[in-house]
Specification:
heterodimer, A: about 140 residues, mainly alpha, two-stranded antiparallel sheet, 4 helices, 2 strands, about 5% strand, B: about 270 residues, three-stranded antiparallel sheet, 11 helices, 3 strands, globular
Protein backbone atom coordinates (compact mmCIF):
# COMPACT_ATOMS: atom_id res chain seq x y z
CA UNK A 1 0.00 0.00 0.00
CA UNK A 2 1.13 3.52 -0.76
CA UNK A 3 -0.25 6.84 0.50
CA UNK A 4 -2.18 7.18 -2.76
CA UNK A 5 -3.80 3.77 -2.49
CA UNK A 6 -4.66 4.29 1.16
CA UNK A 7 -6.20 7.71 0.74
CA UNK A 8 -8.29 6.52 -2.18
CA UNK A 9 -10.08 4.28 0.32
CA UNK A 10 -11.26 7.15 2.51
CA UNK A 11 -14.91 8.15 2.33
CA UNK A 12 -16.00 11.26 4.21
CA UNK A 13 -19.78 11.42 4.35
CA UNK A 14 -20.88 14.93 5.26
CA UNK A 15 -23.26 17.55 3.96
CA UNK A 16 -21.97 20.51 1.98
CA UNK A 17 -22.84 22.71 4.98
CA UNK A 18 -20.55 20.67 7.19
CA UNK A 19 -17.74 20.91 4.68
CA UNK A 20 -18.18 24.70 4.56
CA UNK A 21 -18.12 24.84 8.35
CA UNK A 22 -15.01 22.70 8.41
CA UNK A 23 -13.12 24.91 5.99
CA UNK A 24 -14.43 28.21 7.33
CA UNK A 25 -14.29 27.57 11.05
CA UNK A 26 -11.09 25.52 11.28
CA UNK A 27 -10.49 21.78 11.32
CA UNK A 28 -11.15 20.28 14.78
CA UNK A 29 -7.90 20.34 16.75
CA UNK A 30 -7.74 16.56 17.07
CA UNK A 31 -7.97 16.11 13.30
CA UNK A 32 -5.67 18.86 12.08
CA UNK A 33 -2.36 17.48 10.97
CA UNK A 34 -0.04 19.72 9.00
CA UNK A 35 2.66 17.21 8.19
CA UNK A 36 0.93 14.03 7.08
CA UNK A 37 3.89 12.07 5.74
CA UNK A 38 5.10 10.46 8.87
CA UNK A 39 7.36 7.53 8.24
CA UNK A 40 4.90 4.68 8.39
CA UNK A 41 6.94 1.60 7.72
CA UNK A 42 3.97 -0.49 6.66
CA UNK A 43 3.64 1.65 3.54
CA UNK A 44 5.53 0.60 0.45
CA UNK A 45 6.60 4.15 -0.25
CA UNK A 46 8.98 5.08 -2.97
CA UNK A 47 12.37 3.74 -2.12
CA UNK A 48 13.82 6.96 -3.46
CA UNK A 49 12.27 9.38 -1.02
CA UNK A 50 11.53 9.60 2.65
CA UNK A 51 11.37 12.92 4.44
CA UNK A 52 13.44 11.47 7.25
CA UNK A 53 16.39 10.77 4.94
CA UNK A 54 16.79 14.12 3.23
CA UNK A 55 20.13 14.90 4.84
CA UNK A 56 21.51 11.38 4.46
CA UNK A 57 21.14 10.65 0.75
CA UNK A 58 22.00 12.78 -2.27
CA UNK A 59 19.03 11.53 -4.32
CA UNK A 60 16.56 12.47 -1.63
CA UNK A 61 18.15 15.86 -1.16
CA UNK A 62 17.79 16.44 -4.91
CA UNK A 63 14.07 15.66 -4.71
CA UNK A 64 13.74 17.91 -1.68
CA UNK A 65 15.39 20.78 -3.53
CA UNK A 66 12.64 20.58 -6.16
CA UNK A 67 9.89 20.30 -3.54
CA UNK A 68 10.86 23.48 -1.73
CA UNK A 69 11.99 25.63 -4.62
CA UNK A 70 9.64 28.28 -6.08
CA UNK A 71 9.15 27.43 -9.73
CA UNK A 72 6.92 27.63 -12.78
CA UNK A 73 4.64 24.70 -13.55
CA UNK A 74 3.84 24.17 -17.24
CA UNK A 75 0.21 24.03 -18.32
CA UNK A 76 -1.40 22.92 -21.56
CA UNK A 77 0.73 20.31 -23.18
CA UNK A 78 -2.16 18.92 -25.22
CA UNK A 79 -2.57 18.99 -28.95
CA UNK A 80 -5.73 20.25 -30.61
CA UNK A 81 -6.97 23.33 -32.37
CA UNK A 82 -9.24 24.68 -29.66
CA UNK A 83 -7.01 24.12 -26.70
CA UNK A 84 -6.26 27.04 -24.39
CA UNK A 85 -2.87 28.69 -24.89
CA UNK A 86 0.22 27.21 -23.30
CA UNK A 87 1.13 28.96 -20.08
CA UNK A 88 2.41 28.38 -16.54
CA UNK A 89 1.33 28.49 -12.92
CA UNK A 90 3.38 29.76 -9.99
CA UNK A 91 4.52 27.25 -7.42
CA UNK A 92 5.38 28.93 -4.09
CA UNK A 93 5.90 26.17 -1.54
CA UNK A 94 7.09 28.49 1.23
CA UNK A 95 3.51 29.62 1.88
CA UNK A 96 2.64 26.08 3.00
CA UNK A 97 5.95 25.19 4.64
CA UNK A 98 4.15 23.52 7.55
CA UNK A 99 2.83 20.85 5.19
CA UNK A 100 6.41 19.73 4.58
CA UNK A 101 7.35 19.65 8.21
CA UNK A 102 9.05 23.05 8.37
CA UNK A 103 8.27 26.15 10.41
CA UNK A 104 6.02 28.70 8.74
CA UNK A 105 7.50 31.90 7.33
CA UNK A 106 5.40 34.91 6.29
CA UNK A 107 4.03 34.16 2.81
CA UNK A 108 6.08 35.56 -0.04
CA UNK A 109 5.05 35.86 -3.68
CA UNK A 110 8.40 35.44 -5.41
CA UNK A 111 7.21 36.04 -8.93
CA UNK A 112 5.08 39.13 -8.20
CA UNK A 113 6.22 42.14 -10.27
CA UNK A 114 8.63 39.95 -12.22
CA UNK A 115 6.47 37.63 -14.33
CA UNK A 116 2.82 38.15 -15.22
CA UNK A 117 0.62 35.41 -13.82
CA UNK A 118 -0.77 32.90 -16.32
CA UNK A 119 0.39 34.85 -19.35
CA UNK A 120 0.02 33.08 -22.70
CA UNK A 121 3.30 31.86 -24.09
CA UNK A 122 3.42 31.56 -27.85
CA UNK A 123 6.79 30.08 -28.67
CA UNK A 124 9.30 27.67 -27.23
CA UNK A 125 11.94 30.41 -27.17
CA UNK A 126 9.72 32.54 -24.92
CA UNK A 127 9.24 29.62 -22.58
CA UNK A 128 12.98 28.93 -22.51
CA UNK A 129 13.52 32.51 -21.37
CA UNK A 130 11.09 31.92 -18.51
CA UNK A 131 12.91 28.73 -17.54
CA UNK A 132 16.20 30.59 -17.59
CA UNK A 133 14.72 33.30 -15.38
CA UNK A 134 13.36 30.67 -13.00
CA UNK A 135 16.83 29.14 -12.65
CA UNK A 136 18.61 32.42 -12.12
CA UNK A 137 16.35 34.32 -9.77
CA UNK A 138 16.28 31.99 -6.77
CA UNK A 139 19.53 33.14 -5.13
CA UNK A 140 18.24 36.71 -5.44
CA UNK A 141 14.86 35.75 -3.99
CA UNK A 142 16.27 34.17 -0.86
CA UNK A 143 19.04 36.67 -0.28
CA UNK A 144 16.69 38.84 1.79
CA UNK A 145 15.87 36.08 4.25
CA UNK B 1 11.79 39.57 2.83
CA UNK B 2 9.82 42.79 3.10
CA UNK B 3 7.15 43.34 5.70
CA UNK B 4 7.34 40.38 8.08
CA UNK B 5 3.76 40.87 9.24
CA UNK B 6 1.63 38.98 6.71
CA UNK B 7 -1.76 39.68 8.28
CA UNK B 8 -2.66 42.60 5.99
CA UNK B 9 -1.92 40.60 2.84
CA UNK B 10 -3.81 37.58 4.11
CA UNK B 11 -6.86 39.62 5.14
CA UNK B 12 -6.90 41.35 1.75
CA UNK B 13 -6.66 38.04 -0.05
CA UNK B 14 -9.31 36.45 2.16
CA UNK B 15 -11.81 38.94 0.77
CA UNK B 16 -10.97 37.82 -2.75
CA UNK B 17 -11.76 34.11 -2.51
CA UNK B 18 -15.02 32.88 -4.09
CA UNK B 19 -16.47 32.22 -0.62
CA UNK B 20 -16.59 35.99 -0.08
CA UNK B 21 -17.05 37.13 -3.66
CA UNK B 22 -19.64 34.75 -5.09
CA UNK B 23 -23.27 34.38 -4.08
CA UNK B 24 -22.69 30.80 -2.83
CA UNK B 25 -25.64 29.48 -4.78
CA UNK B 26 -25.43 25.69 -5.25
CA UNK B 27 -26.96 26.14 -8.69
CA UNK B 28 -23.62 27.56 -9.84
CA UNK B 29 -22.52 23.98 -10.36
CA UNK B 30 -24.22 22.31 -13.28
CA UNK B 31 -25.71 19.22 -11.62
CA UNK B 32 -25.26 16.89 -14.55
CA UNK B 33 -22.00 17.94 -16.09
CA UNK B 34 -19.80 20.02 -13.76
CA UNK B 35 -17.90 17.16 -12.17
CA UNK B 36 -18.65 14.38 -14.59
CA UNK B 37 -15.03 13.78 -15.59
CA UNK B 38 -14.16 11.03 -13.24
CA UNK B 39 -12.26 7.84 -14.02
CA UNK B 40 -14.79 5.05 -14.37
CA UNK B 41 -14.40 1.31 -14.62
CA UNK B 42 -13.76 0.49 -18.23
CA UNK B 43 -14.25 -3.01 -19.50
CA UNK B 44 -10.94 -4.60 -20.33
CA UNK B 45 -8.68 -2.02 -18.63
CA UNK B 46 -7.55 -4.26 -15.78
CA UNK B 47 -6.72 -7.15 -18.10
CA UNK B 48 -4.79 -4.83 -20.37
CA UNK B 49 -2.92 -3.30 -17.44
CA UNK B 50 -1.87 -6.72 -16.16
CA UNK B 51 -0.78 -7.85 -19.59
CA UNK B 52 1.35 -4.76 -20.26
CA UNK B 53 2.70 -4.80 -16.69
CA UNK B 54 4.20 -8.28 -17.16
CA UNK B 55 6.54 -6.84 -19.79
CA UNK B 56 6.87 -3.21 -18.77
CA UNK B 57 6.76 -3.16 -14.96
CA UNK B 58 10.52 -2.67 -14.70
CA UNK B 59 10.39 0.27 -17.14
CA UNK B 60 7.56 1.82 -15.15
CA UNK B 61 9.49 1.48 -11.91
CA UNK B 62 12.54 3.13 -13.47
CA UNK B 63 10.42 6.06 -14.65
CA UNK B 64 8.40 6.38 -11.42
CA UNK B 65 5.14 5.44 -13.13
CA UNK B 66 4.31 2.10 -11.51
CA UNK B 67 2.63 3.41 -8.35
CA UNK B 68 0.44 5.80 -10.30
CA UNK B 69 -0.52 3.24 -12.93
CA UNK B 70 -1.61 0.84 -10.15
CA UNK B 71 -3.78 3.64 -8.75
CA UNK B 72 -5.88 3.47 -11.92
CA UNK B 73 -7.39 0.25 -10.56
CA UNK B 74 -8.65 2.07 -7.52
CA UNK B 75 -12.36 2.68 -7.36
CA UNK B 76 -12.35 6.10 -5.70
CA UNK B 77 -15.84 7.16 -4.68
CA UNK B 78 -16.32 10.72 -5.86
CA UNK B 79 -17.20 13.12 -3.05
CA UNK B 80 -18.66 16.00 -5.03
CA UNK B 81 -19.73 17.99 -1.97
CA UNK B 82 -16.22 18.05 -0.54
CA UNK B 83 -14.72 19.12 -3.87
CA UNK B 84 -17.32 21.83 -4.43
CA UNK B 85 -16.99 23.28 -0.92
CA UNK B 86 -13.19 23.39 -1.10
CA UNK B 87 -13.20 25.25 -4.42
CA UNK B 88 -14.89 28.23 -2.74
CA UNK B 89 -11.76 28.76 -0.63
CA UNK B 90 -9.21 28.76 -3.46
CA UNK B 91 -7.03 31.84 -3.76
CA UNK B 92 -5.78 32.36 -7.30
CA UNK B 93 -3.02 34.71 -6.11
CA UNK B 94 -1.41 32.28 -3.71
CA UNK B 95 -2.47 29.12 -5.55
CA UNK B 96 -3.60 27.83 -2.16
CA UNK B 97 -6.73 27.28 -0.11
CA UNK B 98 -7.40 29.99 2.46
CA UNK B 99 -8.80 27.85 5.25
CA UNK B 100 -9.32 29.18 8.77
CA UNK B 101 -6.22 27.52 10.18
CA UNK B 102 -4.03 28.96 7.43
CA UNK B 103 -2.96 28.52 3.85
CA UNK B 104 -2.98 24.96 2.57
CA UNK B 105 -2.24 23.74 -0.92
CA UNK B 106 -1.37 20.61 -2.88
CA UNK B 107 2.40 20.71 -3.38
CA UNK B 108 4.95 18.76 -5.39
CA UNK B 109 5.58 16.80 -2.19
CA UNK B 110 1.94 15.71 -2.20
CA UNK B 111 2.07 14.76 -5.87
CA UNK B 112 5.25 12.76 -5.31
CA UNK B 113 4.02 11.01 -2.20
CA UNK B 114 0.47 10.29 -3.44
CA UNK B 115 1.26 9.26 -6.99
CA UNK B 116 4.97 8.51 -6.99
CA UNK B 117 5.44 10.54 -10.19
CA UNK B 118 8.76 12.19 -10.99
CA UNK B 119 9.01 15.86 -9.99
CA UNK B 120 12.70 16.39 -10.68
CA UNK B 121 13.77 18.33 -13.76
CA UNK B 122 12.40 21.04 -16.02
CA UNK B 123 10.35 20.84 -19.18
CA UNK B 124 9.50 23.26 -21.93
CA UNK B 125 5.87 22.40 -22.84
CA UNK B 126 6.54 23.33 -26.46
CA UNK B 127 8.78 20.30 -26.72
CA UNK B 128 5.61 18.24 -26.19
CA UNK B 129 3.59 20.05 -28.82
CA UNK B 130 5.37 18.54 -31.81
CA UNK B 131 3.53 15.95 -33.89
CA UNK B 132 3.68 12.42 -32.50
CA UNK B 133 5.10 9.61 -34.62
CA UNK B 134 2.24 7.27 -33.78
CA UNK B 135 -1.25 7.91 -35.15
CA UNK B 136 -4.61 6.75 -33.89
CA UNK B 137 -7.27 5.71 -36.32
CA UNK B 138 -10.25 7.53 -34.85
CA UNK B 139 -12.70 6.21 -37.45
CA UNK B 140 -12.38 2.66 -36.11
CA UNK B 141 -12.77 3.64 -32.47
CA UNK B 142 -16.03 4.11 -30.62
CA UNK B 143 -15.42 4.52 -26.93
CA UNK B 144 -12.58 3.42 -24.72
CA UNK B 145 -13.60 -0.27 -24.53
CA UNK B 146 -13.39 -0.47 -28.30
CA UNK B 147 -10.03 1.34 -28.11
CA UNK B 148 -8.73 -1.42 -25.85
CA UNK B 149 -9.96 -4.13 -28.23
CA UNK B 150 -8.30 -2.35 -31.15
CA UNK B 151 -4.93 -1.83 -29.53
CA UNK B 152 -4.46 -4.80 -27.21
CA UNK B 153 -2.58 -7.52 -29.03
CA UNK B 154 -3.84 -11.08 -28.50
CA UNK B 155 -0.43 -12.63 -27.87
CA UNK B 156 1.69 -12.12 -24.76
CA UNK B 157 4.15 -9.72 -26.37
CA UNK B 158 3.80 -5.95 -25.92
CA UNK B 159 4.94 -3.86 -28.89
CA UNK B 160 6.08 -0.28 -28.64
CA UNK B 161 2.84 0.87 -30.23
CA UNK B 162 0.71 -1.10 -27.78
CA UNK B 163 2.63 0.40 -24.87
CA UNK B 164 2.21 3.90 -26.32
CA UNK B 165 -1.54 3.52 -26.79
CA UNK B 166 -1.86 2.05 -23.29
CA UNK B 167 -0.10 5.01 -21.67
CA UNK B 168 -2.09 7.45 -23.81
CA UNK B 169 -5.33 6.06 -22.39
CA UNK B 170 -3.96 6.01 -18.83
CA UNK B 171 -2.92 9.66 -19.03
CA UNK B 172 -6.17 10.86 -20.56
CA UNK B 173 -8.60 9.02 -18.29
CA UNK B 174 -6.83 8.37 -15.02
CA UNK B 175 -4.36 11.25 -14.70
CA UNK B 176 -5.78 14.28 -16.44
CA UNK B 177 -9.45 13.15 -16.31
CA UNK B 178 -10.16 14.24 -19.88
CA UNK B 179 -13.68 14.77 -21.11
CA UNK B 180 -13.49 12.83 -24.33
CA UNK B 181 -15.87 9.89 -24.49
CA UNK B 182 -13.80 8.40 -27.25
CA UNK B 183 -10.06 8.16 -27.56
CA UNK B 184 -7.97 11.14 -28.51
CA UNK B 185 -4.29 11.52 -29.17
CA UNK B 186 -3.63 14.53 -26.93
CA UNK B 187 -0.91 12.86 -24.95
CA UNK B 188 0.84 10.77 -27.62
CA UNK B 189 3.89 13.01 -27.83
CA UNK B 190 4.25 13.02 -24.04
CA UNK B 191 3.99 9.24 -24.02
CA UNK B 192 6.60 8.91 -26.73
CA UNK B 193 8.95 11.13 -24.73
CA UNK B 194 8.37 9.06 -21.60
CA UNK B 195 8.97 5.83 -23.53
CA UNK B 196 12.21 7.13 -25.04
CA UNK B 197 13.89 7.34 -21.64
CA UNK B 198 13.49 11.10 -21.31
CA UNK B 199 13.27 12.30 -17.73
CA UNK B 200 9.91 14.04 -17.84
CA UNK B 201 8.74 15.76 -14.62
CA UNK B 202 5.21 14.43 -15.02
CA UNK B 203 4.42 15.41 -11.42
CA UNK B 204 5.04 19.08 -12.25
CA UNK B 205 2.78 18.89 -15.29
CA UNK B 206 0.08 17.28 -13.14
CA UNK B 207 0.29 19.89 -10.39
CA UNK B 208 0.23 22.68 -12.99
CA UNK B 209 -2.95 21.13 -14.43
CA UNK B 210 -4.51 21.01 -10.95
CA UNK B 211 -3.72 24.67 -10.18
CA UNK B 212 -5.06 25.62 -13.58
CA UNK B 213 -8.24 23.64 -12.96
CA UNK B 214 -8.85 25.32 -9.61
CA UNK B 215 -8.17 28.75 -11.04
CA UNK B 216 -10.68 28.21 -13.85
CA UNK B 217 -13.28 27.00 -11.36
CA UNK B 218 -12.69 29.90 -8.95
CA UNK B 219 -12.93 32.39 -11.83
CA UNK B 220 -16.36 30.99 -12.76
CA UNK B 221 -17.46 31.13 -9.12
CA UNK B 222 -16.32 34.73 -8.66
CA UNK B 223 -18.20 35.81 -11.76
CA UNK B 224 -21.29 33.87 -10.56
CA UNK B 225 -21.33 31.93 -13.81
CA UNK B 226 -22.67 28.39 -14.06
CA UNK B 227 -19.76 26.01 -13.99
CA UNK B 228 -19.70 23.86 -17.11
CA UNK B 229 -17.71 20.67 -17.52
CA UNK B 230 -14.21 21.63 -16.50
CA UNK B 231 -11.63 18.97 -17.15
CA UNK B 232 -8.58 18.45 -15.01
CA UNK B 233 -7.11 16.21 -12.34
CA UNK B 234 -10.04 16.22 -9.91
CA UNK B 235 -8.82 12.87 -8.58
CA UNK B 236 -5.59 14.37 -7.31
CA UNK B 237 -7.48 17.08 -5.45
CA UNK B 238 -9.78 14.42 -4.02
CA UNK B 239 -6.84 12.34 -2.77
CA UNK B 240 -5.20 15.40 -1.25
CA UNK B 241 -8.36 16.48 0.61
CA UNK B 242 -8.92 12.91 1.79
CA UNK B 243 -5.41 12.78 3.14
CA UNK B 244 -5.72 16.01 5.10
CA UNK B 245 -9.20 15.21 6.41
CA UNK B 246 -8.63 11.52 7.05
CA UNK B 247 -8.61 11.89 10.83
CA UNK B 248 -12.31 12.76 10.71
CA UNK B 249 -13.15 9.21 9.69
CA UNK B 250 -10.02 7.07 9.84
CA UNK B 251 -7.46 7.95 12.50
CA UNK B 252 -4.94 5.38 11.24
CA UNK B 253 -4.16 5.26 7.53
CA UNK B 254 -2.49 1.88 7.71
CA UNK B 255 -5.76 0.16 8.64
CA UNK B 256 -7.36 1.01 5.29
CA UNK B 257 -7.36 -1.27 2.27
CA UNK B 258 -7.16 -0.64 -1.46
CA UNK B 259 -10.65 -0.09 -2.93
CA UNK B 260 -10.91 -1.86 -6.24
CA UNK B 261 -14.11 -3.17 -7.70
CA UNK B 262 -12.55 -4.58 -10.82
CA UNK B 263 -13.43 -8.25 -11.14
CA UNK B 264 -10.41 -10.31 -10.21
CA UNK B 265 -11.51 -13.82 -10.98
CA UNK B 266 -10.42 -13.74 -14.61
CA UNK B 267 -6.90 -12.59 -14.01
CA UNK B 268 -3.67 -13.57 -12.45
CA UNK B 269 -2.19 -11.25 -9.84
CA UNK B 270 -0.22 -8.15 -10.76
CA UNK B 271 3.45 -8.94 -11.33
CA UNK B 272 5.88 -7.39 -8.92
CA UNK B 273 8.71 -5.19 -10.13
Amino acid sequence: MSFGETTSAIIIDASITNFFKLFYKEFPEATLEWFVYLDILEFELLASFRFQNIYSYAEEFKILSHLVRPSLLPIEIRHGREKPPTSYEFYCPSIVARQMGFGQLPPALYFADKVKPRESVNTGIEYNRLLHFEQSFLPEAISGW
Amino acid sequence: MGNPDPSRVIVAETNRVPFKESNLHPGLWDKRTALRNWPSIILGWRNWLIKVATKKRVDWTTRNLDQCISLSLSDIRKNELMLKAACFFWSNSYNAFLFRQGLMSPTLADVHMLTGLNIVGHINPFSLLVKPTAKLDSTKTRGWSQYIINHKADDRSVSGREHTTFLNMWLDIYIFCGQACSPISNYLTLVERISSNSEIPLGKILLGALYNLLNRVSQHLMENKTIPTITGPWCLLHLWLNLHLHKLVAPELVNLSFPSKYPEEQEEKLPKG
